[in-house]
Each structure stands twice: as structure tokens, then as C-alpha cells.
Amino acid sequence: MQIDGSLNKYLFLLGGYDLEMLTIRQVLDEQAIAYVDHQLRWDNARVSNYQKELDDALNQGYSVFGIELREDIPVPSGYRRIDHHNELTCLPSALEQVMSFLHLPMDRYQQLVAANDKAYIPGMLELDATKEEIAVIRRADRKAQGVTAEDELSAEKAIAQNSEKVGDLLIVHAFSSRFSPICDRLFPYRCLLVYTDSEWMYYGKGATQIRDYFEEEFLSGKLFCGGGENGYVGIQYGAYSSDKIQEMVEHIKIITNGNL
Predict the structure, then answer these.
(1) What domain of life is recorded for the organism (predicted)?
(2) In Å, how far from its chain's centre is CA 151?
(3) pLDDT score, position 4
């Protein structure tokens, strides 16, 4: 990513909140680099939420970087995308991309944040992370995502009351859209499906196969993925009816049963 100009002519637009996004914001604060933060969530992290700031900055000669924002409107030539999801899963994490662009070294904590965002707990284990380091990162990530004490209790309740196993596939019908406390409590798992009446997420081995099965949904922008071959895949919140979601859940059970 090579753009002429000084750092004071760059503007970063921040995407949905998680630990990586908050860490990027901290770096930008420390380096006194301009950014706009509308405190978005994953489900509303869109370029259109920054259209006024984007237009104003480009008119003033800024180069603008959108971090993990869905391009739901046409973007001008002065806009640059920083992401590592969907068709960009081969790229480094957004934090790594920002640090590389700013020519900054990454400390241990930042390396763990990037590994967690790119490949979850297995990514941190590749860095020989201790149990304590993993616990700190995962707890901070859940907090950054807005997970509350009530969400943590709901996760425990869903695991106890609404879980089943089909072959190697763990399935949890969640009580809320906060899936991370469920994932963290069940790790390690081979493959995990968590869903509500409004969305589902599949994690672990065979994620690429699940994405390929729902290729039409992926191409229509209703499905997203990340984390590589054994990462995760899911549908956008509210993209389908509860009946359709249940149908998709049943298809996933069939796909994973003896085929992964």
C-alpha cells in the first residue's frame, strides 16, 4: 500500500468494534493520526455510515482508509480498503496491515491481538501463547464486542439447555446474538454451529466446504467468512427467515456428517 503524502493527510474510518479495532484506534491515537469512529458494530459496519466524512476528506486532499467496512456504496478512487475477510482472507489482519503501512513494530500484545483476530485461539497457540495470555485476549475481545455479564450467563444457559452433537459437529441454539462466549467456553472443538432465529455461524474444520455449499448466498453478500480453511462462515443478521435458517442448519448437519 503506497500512497504519497504525509501522515497528516491520511484519514482512517473505523469499522465494527472488537479488540483489534480498539487496538488500531489506540495506535492511531498514539501516532496522532486522524480517524473517525462512529462506534459501529459488525452488522452495521458500512462505508455509507461515513459518506459525509469520506466526501469531505477527499475534497480536502486526504487519502482515506476504511477498516473492515462493507462497501455498500460506490467508493471513489481516493478510498483504500483495509480488510482480511471474505475474498481477502489471504491478507494479514487489519492491525498488521495498519502497522505495516505506518512502519511500526508490533509488540507481543499486538501480535496476539492480530493472531486472535485472524485465527482465533489456534492462531495465538501458534505464537506459543500461554493460557493466561489467551484468557486475557479473549476476555478483552468479548468486552470490546459489547458482551455483557448477562450475555455470559446466556451462553452458559444455551450450552446447558440447547446444545446437541451430530457426529463431530457441536450445535448450540443461542439465546442471543453474542456467540463469542459460547465459542470460548466450548473450545477446543472440531466444528461448531451456533445459531438463533436470525443468524448462524459455523466455526472450525470444513468452514471452506460450508461456504462453498452456500456459494450463491456468499456471492449475494448475505454470507461472510474469515480465518482461512478452518476458520468461520456465517450469514448476515436478519438476511433470512427463521424457517430458512432452520433449513440451512439441517443442511449443515448433513454436510458435516462424515464428510469433514
Answers:
(1) Bacteria
(2) 18
(3) 37
